[in-house]
Write a structure and sequence with these properties.
Elements lengths: L26 H6 L8 H14 L9 H10 L4 H26 L6
Helix pairs in contact: 3-4
């Protein structure tokens, strides 16, 4: 997977272990909990995200559009964007499960 590194980014960076005020896990926190399987597109993407998160160089991602924009600015390959989309869906499902477990019902969103 090849990415170019932009020389300047105005995107706010995500701190390690950042949580939203209502206790919802951020996408960066979610990534830090994922297993890395070497030599797979998913593993390479998670490893890249973790490196950026640990360097405080990963943007705050609140929507799929945010993540897609980040990937396209970095000129990610279509395969990497597809893996990112899968990770985003898993993140959304984990948030729905967490919110339904704490309130007894799922949030719409």
């Amino acid at each position: 997977m090849t990415y170019s590194t932009p020389s300047h980014s105005s995107t706010p960076k995500t701190a390690k272990s950042e949580k939203f005020s209502d206790g919802v896990t951020t996408f960066a926190d979610f990534i830090l909990t994922r297993n890395v399987y070497p030599a797979t597109p998913r593993g390479e993407l998670i490893a890249l995200y973790r490196t950026l998160i640990n360097a405080n160089a990963f943007p705050r991602v609140a929507t799929w559009s945010d993540l897609f924009r980040f990937m396209t600015v970095r000129r990610a390959a279509p395969e990497a964007i597809n893996e990112a989309r899968k990770l985003w869906r898993e993140y959304q499902k984990s948030q729905s499960a967490a919110s339904s477990g704490s309130t007894g019902r799922a949030k719409n969103g």
